[in-house]
Amino acid sequence: MSTIRFLRILTIRAMSSSSSSSSSWSCNKCTFLNSASQKLNCMICLAPVSLPSSSPSPSLSISTNDEAKWACKACTFLNTYKNSICDVCGTRLPTSSLLGFDDLTDSGLESNNPASSVGSVFFPLRRCSKRKAMDDDVVEVDGASVVCSESQGVMKKNKEIETKGVASDSGTPLTCLKILSYNVWFREDLELNLRMRAIGHLIQLHSPDLICFQEVTPEIYDIFRKSNWWKAYSCSVSVDVAVSRGYYCMLLSKLGVKSFSSKSFGNSIMGRELSIAEVEVPGRKPLVFATSHLESPCPGPPKWDQMFSRERVEQAKEAIEILRPNTNVIFGGDMNWDDKLDGKFPLADKWVDVWEVLKPGDLGFTYDTKANPMLSGNRALQKRLDRILCRLDDYKLGGIEMVGKEAIPGLSYEKEKKVRGEIKKLELPVLPSDHFGLLLTLSPK
């Protein structure tokens, strides 16, 4: 924060505490109570005075903007959830202020709630860059050409992202390839360290070559980065960018990375994007893998109809269109997909939904309040939100399984649930995430 801005905030606070309500006026943008002597602009956000026609002097005005906002703890300015950093003082929105699905559904809502069939619920995150990702941003990383964008955090310095994967022409040709897609759950107040360690144990157990993560927060990034398994992977998100965003998707690769890139979805109010990596597979054809966290349903009062299905479907179509030119491509992530609401996933020719091909007849719920005992205190919900989709000319599908279905031994948490008007405390086990992960195995043709 600049010194001038800091001094301005201190002055404002002093003036606010000494002024009375009868001699002040409320800004219609940020609701700050300005003194009567402040006649032209709000001293917090500099918004012009809103003058009612019946009075020549500033008076109380009420904002008609219904958009949800969060109050900055440092300066009290009301920011929209599009911004994870305060517009006035630069303070970051605490991750605990972001709602998860269980936070909404545990508010005593009864079964007549029309939004009972929705998927995970999240507030929007801020767009991380004022400019759109440019296709021609190219830097060199360990001699390889890397396409980059500001949102992915690949800067024009080799040292920003260290590629640790094996070279494409080294070692014995791979006989199988493992890809993990996992929404790690950004809820930081529920045994975060132990949950992330459990995910790390799954990574060490299955040793995936490629990883697609969703809902990574700065704290989760830091935990992962300090883990022993991290050293084997190249990461698509730099340290500087990782600490500046609310939550995001992230790609990790053991293989040699030819490029990392990202494309923001123009219709997203939640800052959602498509993250892409091109990797060199030893002795095999190159492979593209990508991830995304498509627009989330956000039902809330008064209408409970903010499902964002149209935006989600458009994002799915755009992602497939971007990836279509590749002959060997895997797209895994939290699609927030609801077949009843969104219809069939819009796959292009030669593309398949891996779970449908390898597990026909298996519903494959990755968010499941019945199968996941940690969520048993929530309203019943079973959805196949997470998917792995692919088009493969030079590889063939091996198998797919869910991971992270076992409770962490010796760990539990208390949860309050309203049952027939009475609040009851439940002791529930803790799993690595509220979602199950998907582990895909490929082999060359």
UniProtKB/TrEMBL annotation:
A single GO cellular-component term from the record reads:
cytoplasm
User: The RanBP2-type domain covers which part of the protein?
Assistant: 66-95
* InterPro entries listed in its UniProt record: Endo/exonuclease/phosphatase (IPR005135), TDP2-like (IPR051547), Znf_RanBP2 (IPR001876)
Q: Name one Pfam family in it.
A: Exo_endo_phos
Q: Does the keyword Transmembrane apply?
A: no
What the entry lists under CDD domains is as follows: TDP2
Q: Does the keyword Calcium apply?
A: no
Which domain of life does the UniProt lineage start with?
Eukaryota
Tell me the keywords, alphabetical order.
Answer: DNA damage, DNA repair, Endonuclease, Hydrolase, Magnesium, Metal-binding, Nuclease, Nucleus, Zinc, Zinc-finger
GO BP terms: double-strand break repair
Tell me the compartments it is located in: Nucleus
The Swiss-Prot or TrEMBL record lists the needed cofactor(s) as:
Mg(2+)
A single MF term (Gene Ontology)? endonuclease activity
User: What is the protein's given name?
Assistant: Endonuclease/exonuclease/phosphatase
